[in-house]
Design goal:
2 copies of one chain form a homodimer.
Chain A: H1 17-25, E1 35-37, E2 44-47, E3 53-62, H2 74-90, E4 95-105, H3 111-128, E5 131-139, E6 144-154, E7 170-174, H4 179-196, H5 208-215, H6 223-230, E8 236-239, H7 244-255, E9 257-262, H8 270-278, H9 283-289, E10 296-300, H10 305-308, E11 314-322, E12 327-330, E13 336-338, E14 344-345, E15 350-351
Parallel strand pairs in A: 4-5, 9-12
Antiparallel strand pairs in A: 1-2, 3-6, 4-6, 7-10, 7-11, 8-10, 9-11, 12-13, 14-15
Chain lengths: 352, 352
C-alpha cells in the first residue's frame, strides 16, 4: 500500500489523508453491541437505550505539555491517551463504550510512528472493550496533539457527579497514590544521568511499579461493577488525574462541603515510600499534589461502610464536613492543614 | 475575576486552567431537553431515547493548515469550527444536539482572544440550537488547535450513509457551490495587495457573498427536516467539505457504484461566475475541487423525483451508474471526463 524509504520508514506525505485514515483504522474490531457504525462515514452511529443516559468526555494532550516522547513510546502514549478519557467515564459510575481519536502531527512523524501509536490505541480499546468509532488525522506545524472523546452510558439512578457529597459521608480512594508522579521523577533522573554518561546502565528494577504507573496507567473500569456488586452508589465521584488534594477540593467545592482527610490513611505503595526518600520528597505531598494516578475518589453514606469494609481495592481516607469547617488534612500529630489545589496548570507552567 | 494589563488584555497564565474553563463556559445556555448535565464534571450526561440512534462526529482544525487568522477573526473561526462538525451530523440526515470544544493554544493568545473565539462558538450553538456540554482547554507550544465533537440523533429508518446509492439514483446537491473557495482567493488577493500598498482600500463589496461563504459558512440544518416534510429518505448522503468531485467519489466508492455528473447542472452563484473570470479559473473546476461549501450531496430514488422537483434548495446534477461505467463528468459538449479526488491533503500540502 505504500513504498518504503531506504530505512523502511514512510513519510506521511506519501499517503493521502484519506488513505492514511483508512490504513490506520482498517480491520478495527468492535466490542460493543451499541456500535452500529464506526469509522468511515460523516459520523459514527450508536444505538441508544432508553434506560440509560449517555456520557461524553473529551481530553486534549499536547506534546511538550502533557507528554514527552523522551520518556514514553508512541504505543504507550496511545494507550494512555485512551485510558485518561475512559477514566472520566468510570468517574461518573458509567461504562465506557466508544471513543473517537483525533490527531494533529508534524511531518517529523512517519507512518510507522503512527502505526505504533495506533497499536497503543487499539490495545487500550481491546483491554477496556471500547470501540474506536471515528476521528480525524491531520498535520500540525509543530509536535503531536491528540484529542480523544469517550462516549459511555450509565443508569440515571447510579450516576455519580462531583456534587452530591454531604456532611458525614466517608471519603474513599481506590488503589494507591503517588506512584505515577514518582515514576516520572525516576525517568527524569535517569534521563539526566544518561545525558552525562550515555554508557551508564540505568537500574530501573526497584522502580518498575512507579514507572508502569507513569507510562502505562490503567483506568478503574472495575470499580463501577464492584460498587454495583457491593450495593453501593457513591454520593459523589471524580478521578484522580491532578492529585488527591485538587480532586477532593473539586468534590468539596461542587458539593458545597468541607472535609477532613487523614494523612495516615492515604494508601501508599511501599515503592513510593522507599523511592520518595531518595528524592527528598514527602510521600504524602506526592499523593496530594502528584497526579496522573487515575484512581477514583468518591464519597459514600456512613451506612454503606460495612459494605466496603475490608475490600482491598478501597480505602477510607476521611469524611465530609460542613463547608465552614474548611477542607483540611489532619496530620499524624493531629494538626489541621488546609488543603490547596496544587494540580498542574498548563498555561502558567507551574503548580496551582 | 482577572487583572487587566495596561492594554486591557489578559495573558492566559494569569488564569489557572480551571478558572479559565469556568470563565469561558459560565452562563452557558442549554437548548436541548436531552442535555442532563453539561460542562463541569468528568463527563457530560445526555438522555438517551430508545427510538433514536446517537451520532458522533469529530474534527480537528489546525492553525496554518485549516485556517489562517490573517483572513478570519477568532469569532468567525469559533463559529466555523462548530458549523463544520454539525454539517457531518446533518449529512447523516440527523439532528445535532450537543458539542464538546477542546482547544490547545500558545501563549501568544490572550484571554480576550479566547473570549472572542467563544463568542463565535456560542453564536453557532445558539443559531443551531446545540448545547456546549464539555471540552478541554490547554496550552500548545505553537499556534491554535481546535477539536470539536458533535453528538446528534437520528431515527434508524432515516439514517443516510455514504453507502446506499444504487444504479439509476439521482444525484442532488443543496444550495450552490464554489463560493467558499473563491472567497478565499479574494481574501488572499486583497492581502497581497495590502502588503504592497497598505493604504489601498479593498473593495470587497462585489464579493460579499463569496467572502461570507468562506469566513461564515452555514451547515444545512434545514435539509433533514425539509427531506422529512417532502417524504424523501436519501439513499446516501455526505457533506461537501472537500469539493463536489471528492465527495461524489466517496459516495461512489462506498456504494460500489459509478456516476454521471452533468457540468451544466452544477448550481453556481452569479458572483462565482463573474469573479472566477478575474482569477482565470473555470467555475466548474472550482465547484469540483474547491471545497468548504458545506452544502449536502445526496442520492434519491428516481421515483422520489416529483417530490423534490422545483424546490429552490435542491438541484439534480446527475445520476448513479454501475461501477464499471466509472465516475465521470459529462461536459457541456457531451465529453466524458473521469472525476478525480482533488480535495486538500493536509500532509503533502497539495491537492490529491
Amino acid at each position: 500500500m505504500f513504498e518504503n524509504k531506504g530505512n523502511g520508514k514512510t513519510s506521511l506525505s506519501e499517503f493521502g489523508e484519506f488513505a492514511l485514515i483508512n490504513y490506520l483504522t482498517k480491520d478495527l474490531k468492535n466490542y460493543q453491541k451499541t456500535t452500529i457504525l464506526g469509522v468511515g462515514d460523516d459520523a459514527a452511529v450508536l444505538q441508544s437505550d432508553s434506560k440509560k443516559q449517555t456520557l461524553v468526555s473529551t481530553d486534549m494532550l499536547v506534546e511538550g505539555v502533557h507528554f514527552n516522547l523522551t520518556y514514553m513510546s508512541l504505543k504507550h502514549l496511545g494507550y494512555k491517551a485512551v485510558v485518561v478519557n475512559l477514566s472520566d467515564i468510570y468517574a461518573m459510575n458509567g461504562n465506557a463504550k466508544q471513543i473517537t481519536v483525533s490527531l494533529a502531527l508534524s511531518n517529523r512523524f512517519l507512518v510507522e510512528d503512527l502505526e505504533e501509536f495506533y497499536l497503543g490505541i487499539r490495545l487500550a480499546a481491546e483491554t477496556y472493550g471500547v470501540d474506536i468509532v471515528g476521528g480525524d488525522t491531520t498535520s500540525s506545524s509543530k509536535g503531536l496533539i491528540i484529542s480523544v472523546t469517550a462516549v459511555g452510558e450509565v443508569s440515571p439512578e447510579k450516576i455519580t457527579l462531583r456534587k452530591g457529597a454531604s456532611e458525614g459521608d466517608l471519603i474513599v480512594v481506590t488503589g494507591d497514590l503517588g506512584g505515577a508522579y514518582l515514576g516520572f521523577q525516576v525517568l527524569e533522573r535517569e534521563r539526566q544521568i544518561f545525558e552525562v554518561n550515555p554508557n551508564n546502565q540505568p537500574d530501573l528494577e526497584p522502580h518498575t511499579y512507579l514507572i508502569e504507573r507513569q507510562i502505562k496507567p490503567e483506568a478503574r473500569k472495575d470499580i463501577p461493577p464492584l460498587l454495583e456488586a457491593l450495593g453501593v452508589v457513591p454520593t459523589s465521584m471524580i478521578d484522580i488525574s491532578d492529585g488527591l488534594s485538587s480532586e477532593l477540593l473539586h468534590i468539596c467545592h461542587a458539593s458545597e462541603m468541607g472535609c477532613q482527610l487523614y494523612e495516615e490513611k492515604i494508601p501508599i505503595d511501599p515503592q513510593v515510600l522507599t523511592t520518595s526518600e531518595s528524592f527528598n520528597l514527602h510521600p504524602v505531598t506526592i499523593c496530594l499534589n502528584g497526579g496522573e494516578d487515575y484512581e477514583l475518589l468518591f464519597t459514600i453514606k456512613q451506612k454503606d461502610y460495612p459494605k466496603i469494609k475490608g475490600n482491598p481495592n478501597l480505602t477510607v481516607v476521611g469524611y465530609i464536613t460542613s463547608k465552614n469547617e474548611g477542607a483540611n488534612l489532619v496530620s499524624r500529630i493531629g494538626e489541621l492543614i488546609p488543603l490547596k489545589a496544587q494540580g498542574w496548570d498548563s498555561f502558567s507552567g507551574k503548580e496551582v
